[in-house]
Write a structure and sequence with these properties.
The structure is a single chain. By secondary structure, the chain is α/β, with parallel strands linked by helices. It has two domains: about 210 residues, Amidase signature (AS) enzymes, CATH 3.90.1300; about 160 residues, Alpha-Beta Complex (Amidase signature (AS) enzymes), CATH 3.90.1300.10. The protein has twelve helices and 13 strands. The chain has an eleven-stranded mixed β-sheet with strand order 1-3-2-6-8-7-12-13-11-9-10, with helices on both faces. A two-stranded antiparallel sheet has the order 4-5. Helix 8 links the parallel strand 9 and strand 10. The chain is globular. The relative contact order is 0.13. It holds the Pfam family Amidase.
């Protein structure tokens, strides 16, 4: 697998030249590989090339958060996440682009410029982990890491057609991940994996929840991972949140996912919304809409309120992930012409323009579980992915 590292940067260069998603390629890749080859132990990520979001600390490189004032501030050591990745055999080969200050779901800044969507360059890659979404979605990386404060892993994953996972807060170490603004503690920032499919997420979560992580950062609870259960689940779902009405395509793929899960033997339950009655209803997890498809460039700044579907689970500190399950069809685009949202007001009209001309763009659903039930969330994501892949082959 180590040989794969040599040609992945070439693919990443090609993707970057089209999408402008990488901020720096690591000059020490060969050194990392030599150290791996000299080791007797081969970790579970042996030779896997990994990209990281720009503000995740890597020794000798800046973590600017898209701000020019930090360009000359070089990190003195790797973040805990990078240390554990290297310990488990991964080769960190690139850092990826972010919005200025990170507080936006369109990836653009005055240092590195604007990142485009791998499926349609007239569309944005979202953010704030947009560089990761574009690089992985374009085939330039197989596995990467973003951060999520209001959907910053899930939004670009959805827009770029990849799998992304926001763990329970502090399930993975945040030590060495640079905040743009100090003091933002009410809603904790999370670091999490992004990959071309759910299998990559499962692989890396199993690898990272290890003694090395727990020893380097005492704030991380020493809970190991287990994903062996095959018991049918009781899955809640909702089609809308009462704030932003999903696009026609998004509603369609959510209902298709609900039907496939029901046919697979899982029990469905529709609730008005997420509340304390989750446990009373004996629900294991839920599926719900994601924001999407990808927005036309320039619209995320006008529609910050549209992150309601993702930010809720940051506030609740629930693990949540997204799985690509389909694409916008011509029928979806026709139905969008009649979209009025809830009130046909400025927000609804703006959203309609943002997602217009989306035929062929990926659509994803969101899977959510209770705090520290990350493995259950990943299990549901894997099942959703498997069921849709089977359906596509029919």
């Amino acid at each position: 697998m180590v040989n794969k590292v040599y040609h992945i940067p070439q693919q990443a260069l090609e993707v970057h030249s089209d999408l402008n998603c990488v901020t720096v390629f690591m000059s020490d890749c060969e050194t990392q590989i030599k150290k791996l080859q000299e080791r007797e132990e081969r970790g579970p990520l042996y030779g896997v090339p990994v990209s990281i979001k720009e503000h995740v600390s890597y020794q000798g490189h800046p973590s600017t958060c898209g701000l020019a004032q930090y360009l000359d501030v070089l990190e003195e050591e790797d973040s805990v996440m990078v240390k554990v990745l290297k310990k488990q055999g991964a080769v960190v080969f690139a850092k990826t682009n972010v919005p200025q200050t990170l507080i936006c779901f369109e990836t653009s800044n005055t240092i590195y410029g604007h990142t485009k969507n791998p499926h349609n360059t007239a569309k944005g890659a979202s953010g704030s982990s947009g560089g990761e979404g574009a690089l992985i979605g374009g085939g330039g990386s197989v596995l990467g890491f973003g951060t999520d404060l209001a959907g910053s892993i899930r939004l670009p994953s959805s827009f770029c057609g990849i799998a992304g996972f926001k763990p329970t807060s502090l399930r993975l170490s945040m030590s060495g991940v640079r905040p743009c603004i100090d003091g933002m503690t009410a809603v904790p920032l999370c670091i999490g994996p992004m990959a071309q499919d759910v299998d990559g997420l499962v692989l890396v979560m199993k690898a990272l929840l290890c003694d090395e992580m727990f020893n380097l950062d005492p704030n991380v609870p020493p809970i190991s991972t287990s994903m062996r259960s095959h018991i049918p689940l009781r899955i809640g779902y909702y089609e809308e949140d009462g704030f932003f009405l999903p696009s026609p395509g998004m509603r369609r793929v959510l209902l298709e996912t609900k039907q496939l899960l029901g046919e697979a033997g899982h029990q469905e339950y529709q609730a008005e919304f997420i509340r304390e009655e989750w446990k009373k209803l004996n629900m294991d997890a839920i599926i719900c809409p994601m924001l999407g498809p990808a927005f036309n460039i320039g619209y995320p700044g006008k529609l910050l309120a549209a992150i309601s579907y993702t930010m809720l689970y940051n506030m609740l500190q629930f693990p949540a992930g997204v799985v690509p399950v389909g694409f916008v069809t011509k029928e979806d685009e026709k139905a969008l012409r009649h979209y009025t949202g809830y009130n046909n007001d400025h927000w609804d009209k703006c959203f309609k323009k943002a997602v217009a001309d989306g035929v062929g763009l990926p659509l994803s659903v969101q899977c959510v579980a209770l705090p520290y039930q990350d493995e259950l969330c990943l299990r549901l994501m894997k099942e959703v992915q498997t069921l849709h892949m089977r359906q596509m082959k029919k």
